[in-house]
Design goal:
The protein has 473 residues and is of the alpha+beta class. It has 18 helices and 23 strands. A 7-stranded antiparallel beta sheet has the order 3-2-4-1-10-9-11. It has a 6-stranded antiparallel beta sheet with strand order 5-6-7-8-12-13, with helices on one face. A 4-stranded parallel beta sheet has the order 17-20-21-22, with helices on both faces.
């Protein structure tokens, strides 16, 4: 696995389309980068909600015959990477229950910082949980609500939550989208002829030919039914805190997120990085794929040729057979291979979007050196990552974050490069542009918009640690 923050989850929904399951399949296919552990689709024909989900990739789970068994005019879907709960089928979404309010399905992108406290309270009152996902807390709150109707029950449930959440919910006759008042995670509204579309990123709309209308606003609860759209604002106003890492790494470059082109922001990151961390070099080489946009901006600003000096194998599956004999840097070499004719004898600038633990970057630097590079200069298009995220991103504990525990010179020594340079926080916000004050940058500053539990058990639940690997020699 590449040494990156893990993508969180992606949601897609469509209401008012006779091929809702097929459209949702395509939407999830476009959002596969946001989660690769499991995928699921819930479909309503107006009377009954059915759900199908499994572990694995979208294309491997859903076949034509399977989708044909999911008839209906409305559907919601989910791709998952676990940020709260284990990787197992019981945690795959959407969830579906039948309670006093009728059938109710839900899927979620984010992380509820008060999930543990709510869960303990619910269990003490007799609730029985079937999964380890924080999303199940919402189901119990909804099912226990004494509200007179679905709308009021949803409002009562979600207003008890804290943290980051972009929800898609569905009953037999309506679809509901909810975004937390801080707006941590993206959620967009679109139109496909007479149908409404809700999804994590606009690239999913592009695939099915839908038109982007606007973002679901932070703190908005949007109800979609045969009568059209109904917008509620049940939350108290809160400080906006869009996740800036969506622009740095998570989102696809062809998406618009938080109203901005991810490609343009990411390219600007590279331009500003070149102004702040310029070095005399012969070639700029991106670490594919996530470093490509920033590398283009860096090369353009520094007036240094951009070359694809590392080639990525896009056909690596979940597992591969590793030979018993030792092959140096085997795991990385399966995914990346250097182009000697581009690197040999050259002063190389390696551009990547982020540096977390540094283990993979070190292997890549040594591969580039082995291919004959004269000098290797690492440039990172974001500030040093010094703190875990608690708002829907799987990150290591602080002790495992290289920039939190090592000086810049120690990082350079560990990576075995000639120099290493990060984008400053000021440079990051300059590249983001207008509205930069509305972003959460807690992974770079350690300053969190929402408090989180400090006890070890809750800490480990919120920030799942990666398998430990030594950071220093």
């Amino acid at each position: 696995m590449l040494d990156k923050f893990k993508d969180e989850c992606g949601v897609f929904g469509i209401f008012g389309h006779h091929e809702s399951a097929n459209m949702t399949y395509l939407g999830l296919y476009a959002l596969q980068h946001r989660g690769q552990e499991s995928a699921g689709i819930a479909v309503s024909d107006g009377k009954l909600v059915r759900v199908s989900k499994a572990m694995g990739y979208v294309a491997d789970i859903f076949s034509g015959p399977m989708l044909s068994q999911l008839p209906g005019h409305a559907a919601i879907g989910h791709v998952r990477y676990s940020t709260a709960g284990e990787s197992r089928l019981a945690n795959a979404q959407p969830f579906l229950i039948d309670c006093a309010h009728g059938q109710f399905s839900i899927c979620h992108n984010g992380n509820l910082t008060n999930a543990d406290a709510l869960r303990n309270e619910l269990v003490s009152q007799g609730s029985i949980f079937q999964s380890g996902s924080d999303t199940e807390v919402v189901l119990h709150l909804y099912a226990r609500s004494k509200a007179r109707n679905v709308e009021d029950a949803v409002v009562e449930s979600v207003t008890q939550l804290q943290g980051a959440f972009s929800f898609l919910m569905m009953t037999p006759d309506r679809m509901i989208a909810v975004r937390d008042p801080h707006g941590f995670r993206p959620l967009a509204l679109g139109r496909l002829n007479d149908a409404f579309v809700i999804c994590s990123e606009t690239c999913a709309m592009d695939l099915i030919g839908a038109t982007y209308i606007r973002d679901v606003e932070p703190g908005e609860l949007l109800i979609i039914s045969s009568g059209g759209l109904k917008s509620l604002k049940p939350f108290a106003p809160a400080q906006l805190a869009h996740c800036v890492f969506e622009h740095v790494y998570f989102s696809r470059p062809d998406s618009y997120v938080f109203g901005k082109s991810v490609n343009e922001v990411r390219t600007n990151l590279g331009r500003v990085l070149a102004r702040e961390q310029r070095v005399d070099a012969d070639v700029v080489v991106p670490i594919p794929d996530s470093g490509v946009c920033a590398a283009m901006g860096y090369a353009d600003e520094a007036n240094i040729p951009l070359r694809m000096g590392l080639i990525r194998n896009h056909y690596v599956g979940r597992t591969f057979i590793q030979p018993q004999s030792s092959i140096r840097h085997f795991g990385v070499k399966v995914k990346l291979n250097p182009v000697r004719s581009i690197l040999e004898g050259k002063r190389v600038v390696l551009v990547d979007d982020s540096l977390v633990r540094g283990t993979t970057s070190r292997k890549i630097v040594r591969m580039v050196r082995a291919a004959g590079a004269k000098e290797v200069h690492v440039r990172i298009s974001c500030p040093p990552t010094i703190s875990p995220c608690f708002y829907g991103v799987d990150t290591p504990r602080r002790s495992e974050l290289m920039a939190a525990t090592h000086t810049l010179d120690e990082i350079r020594t560990y990576l075995d490069c000639d120099s290493v340079g990060y984008l400053s926080l000021e440079g990051l916000m300059k590249a983001v542009g207008e509205g930069s004050g509305h972003y959460c940058s807690s992974c770079y500053t350690g300053q969190y918009p929402i408090a989180f539990p400090r006890d070890e058990r809750s800490y480990l639940q919120l920030a799942l640690k990666l398998d430990k690997e030594p950071v220093a020699n």
